[in-house]
């Protein structure tokens, strides 16, 4: 048969893996959205060439070093700089002027992946002359991806796209002044990362750790079920100052959550909310 | 009777690439009466920020047209559109979810991804239609729909603007019907009426 033929694992197998991962490693995927998680597990079985689900489960149970790889592949790390440029334009034009009135600006990027979003924000802050009084907390469940933030190195092949995104976000400079090209890599200027603090933080199990003026959590909640989304929205509510801002992914919505009453959406089209009480 | 109507072919999922837009719009214009059905569109688009698509479909139909948001409830009388740059998944019979993972067959949204999860969720209640297109996306999805007991319709490659996509599906699986693009709206309407009366 065709090489693309796959045996889709069932709910029972998925539950078994989730249970074992929690029991052995303490990472809780119970309330992740099922359809997507199922695809991720199937994908691992294929790319790591396990003959069947049983072999994957055996490996997870008996080889702790494989667990790191499992987490990397179960989670989705796709990201880009100035993703959804219109959002960054709104931040530039409407949010930064408000934040500028504070003596300090604290920002949290929850589920920041390899950090493209954090560097985008640092560039915005620098252009508004606010970086010196800002701190950007970049957290993710996956320790491997956040290592990249300290390095500040991104594929050079992406720069054309990022530069277009930057322009669409209202950037007026030459984007290439922010990095040095070296072979196939773009190393971003160290002054951008001087104000970044990186840490692992699991939105499922870790608590609030500060009060922020602005929280980004984009394209992370789509991997959670409604119940877990609600829990994380409460965490953000606790972690936001009054009149602080919450930025979600372009297809995510706060509308049906328990904390919805405490927030007002900035514009109908944009996924930016402000904590009003 | 009413129960049957709900169970047979009550969900229709349609996939195609840019060249299939015309057929998709004609289908949208033909299904006004099917207010107890749910329609899901996955169309590869060139420009990811092109939001005209929703407006184009809206202009052709009296059904509700919605680009899907994450964890949106699935209701009847609605044509749902997979948003650009996300895979559209069916969580269960009542809910969608989105996923921004790797492209499949160079595509996001991928037809395979939506077809497969819809097949798992709806089984025999699903009808899958694969239209014209120039890559292999959708063929595996059609196979999964057939395997789950759903009804499969593929555009006739000999009259399709791009034959590759429907031809791949036909090579992979025995589909229930091969229909020229021009007759697709009429064929679908007849199929849904028959399924409802069965
Ligand atoms: C698709 S990326 C989003 C990156 C960026 N925010 C964006 O929108 O481009 C999703 C990230 O969420 C992280 N993630 C998944 N589950 C998490 C959890 N429970 N706690 C914290 N981060 C999590 C993944 O490791 C991944 O890096």
Helical fraction of chain A equals 40-55%
**How would you name the CATH homologous superfamily of chain B?**
Methylesterase CheB, C-terminal domain
Strand order of the largest sheet of chain A: 6-2-1-7-8-10-9
Class from helix and strand fractions of chain B: alpha/beta
- Beta-strand segment tally of chain A: 10
Question: CATH superfamily membership of the largest domain in chain A, which one?
Answer: Vaccinia Virus protein VP39
Instruction: Supply the CATH architecture of chain B.
Output: 3-Layer(aba) Sandwich
**Which outline of chain A best applies?**
globular
> SSE string of chain A, helix = H, strand = E?
HHHHHEHEHEHEEHEEHEEE
Q: How would you characterize the largest beta sheet of chain B?
A: 7 strands, parallel
Sheet with the most strands, sense and barrel status of chain A? 7 strands, mixed
CATH topology of the largest domain in chain A: Rossmann fold
Low-confidence stretches of chain A: 1-5
The main sheet of chain B orders its strands as 3-4-2-1-7-8-9
- Count of separate structural domains of chain A: 2
Oligomer: heterodimer
Which protein chains are joined by the largest interface, and how many residues does each one contribute? Answer: A-B, 25 and 26 residues
Order of helices and strands of chain B: HEHEHEEEEHEHEHEH
**Main structural class of chain A:** alpha/beta
Specify the CATH architecture of the largest domain in chain A.
3-Layer(aba) Sandwich
Fold topology:
The complex is a heterodimer of chains A (277) and B (198).
Chain A: H1 11-25, H2 34-47, H3 53-62, H4 64-74, H5 85-99, E1 105-110, H6 116-127, E2 134-140, H7 143-151, E3 153-155, H8 159-168, E4 179-182, E5 185-188, H9 190-193, E6 196-200, E7 212-217, H10 226-239, E8 240-248, E9 263-265, E10 272-275
Parallel strand pairs in A: 1-2, 1-7, 2-6, 7-8
Antiparallel strand pairs in A: 3-5, 4-5, 8-10, 9-10
Helix pairs in contact in A: 1-3, 3-4
Chain B: H1 2-7, E1 11-16, H2 21-30, E2 38-43, H3 52-58, E3 64-67, E4 78-81, E5 87-92, E6 95-99, H4 111-122, E7 126-130, H5 139-147, E8 151-155, H6 164-172, E9 177-179, H7 184-197
Parallel strand pairs in B: 1-2, 1-7, 2-4, 3-4, 7-8, 8-9
Antiparallel strand pairs in B: 5-6
Helix pairs in contact in B: 2-7, 4-5, 5-6
The structure holds S-adenosylmethionine.
């Amino acid at each position: 048969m065709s090489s693309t033929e796959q045996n889709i694992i069932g709910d029972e197998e998925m539950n078994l893996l989730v249970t074992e991962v929690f029991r052995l490693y303490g990472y809780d995927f119970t309330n992740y959205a099922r359809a997507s998680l199922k695809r991720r597990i199937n994908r691992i079985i294929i790319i790591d060439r396990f003959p069947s689900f049983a072999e994957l489960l055996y490996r997870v149970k008996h080889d702790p070093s494989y667990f790191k790889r499992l987490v990397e592949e179960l989670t989705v790390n796709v990201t880009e700089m100035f993703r959804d440029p219109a959002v960054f334009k709104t931040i530039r034009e409407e949010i930064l002027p408000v934040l500028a009135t504070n003596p300090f600006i604290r920002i949290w990027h929850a589920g920041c992946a390899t950090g493209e979003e954090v560097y985008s924000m640092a560039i915005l802050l620098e252009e508004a002359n606010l970086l010196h009084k800002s701190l950007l907390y970049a957290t993710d469940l996956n320790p491997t991806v956040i290592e990249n933030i300290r390095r500040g190195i991104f594929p050079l092949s992406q720069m054309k796209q990022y530069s277009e995104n930057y322009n669409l976000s209202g950037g007026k400079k030459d984007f290439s002044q922010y990095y040095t090209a070296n072979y196939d890599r773009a190393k971003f200027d160290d002054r951008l990362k001087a104000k970044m603090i990186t840490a692992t933080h699991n939105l499922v199990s870790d608590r609030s750790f500060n009060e922020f003026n602005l929280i980004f959590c984009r394209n992370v909640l789509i991997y959670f079920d409604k119940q877990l989304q609600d829990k994380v929205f409460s965490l953000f509510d606790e972690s936001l100052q009054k009149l602080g801002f919450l930025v979600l992914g372009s297809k995510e919505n706060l509308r049906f959550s328990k904390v919805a009453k405490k927030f007002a959406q900035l514009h109908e089209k944009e996924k930016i909310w402000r904590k009003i009480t | 009777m009413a129960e049957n109507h709900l169970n047979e072919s009550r969900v229709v999922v349609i996939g195609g690439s840019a060249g299939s837009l015309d057929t998709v719009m004609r289908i949208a214009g033909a299904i006004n009466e099917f207010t107890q059905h749910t329609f899901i569109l996955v169309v590869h688009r060139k420009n990811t920020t092109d939001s005209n698509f929703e407006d184009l479909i809206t202009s052709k139909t009296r059904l509700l047209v919605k680009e899907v948001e994450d964890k949106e409830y699935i209701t009847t009388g609605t044509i749902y559109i997979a948003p650009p740059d996300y895979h559209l998944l069916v969580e269960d019979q009542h809910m969608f979810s989105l996923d921004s993972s790797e492209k499949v067959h160079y595509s996001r949204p991928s037809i395979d991804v939506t077809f497969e999860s819809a097949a798992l969720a709806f089984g025999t209640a699903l009808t899958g239609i694969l239209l014209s297109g120039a890559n292999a996306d959708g063929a595996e999805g059609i196979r999964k729909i057939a395997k789950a007991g759903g009804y499969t319709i593929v555009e006739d490659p000999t009259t399709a603007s791009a034959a590759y996509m429907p031809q791949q599906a036909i090579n992979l699986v025995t589909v229930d019907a091969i229909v020229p693009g021009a007759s697709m709206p009429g064929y679908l309407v007849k199929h849904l009426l028959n399924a409802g009366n069965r």
